[in-house]
Structure to design on (96 residues):
């Protein structure tokens, strides 16, 4: 199993419960594909470097998880079509 991190930028104009449901849905995808969520960091609302979908702010979440090498590709396919996710990035963390 490798260590990965999924960074999500979630729409800032939605309700708190909808935003939390979006993060939970991403965590559910990780679990569905055989991954194990180890930590979720909530960085809160931040100003974006440039306008994305006519929005200037977004909520940042960083989800660390352990998974097999095939999981990030499957995860990205599903996160890509989620409504309230403005941007995402899944990276493998170094063993340090």
């Amino acid at each position: 199993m490798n260590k990965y991190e999924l960074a999500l930028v979630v729409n800032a104009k939605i309700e708190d419960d909808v935003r939390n449901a979006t993060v939970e849905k991403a965590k559910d995808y990780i679990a569905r594909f055989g991954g194990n969520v180890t930590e979720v960091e909530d960085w809160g609302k931040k100003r974006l470097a440039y306008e994305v979908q006519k929005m200037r702010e977004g909520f940042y979440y960083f989800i660390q998880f352990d998974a097999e090498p095939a999981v990030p590709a499957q995860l990205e396919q599903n996160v890509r079509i989620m409504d309230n996710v403005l941007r995402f990035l899944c990276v493998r963390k170094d063993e340090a």
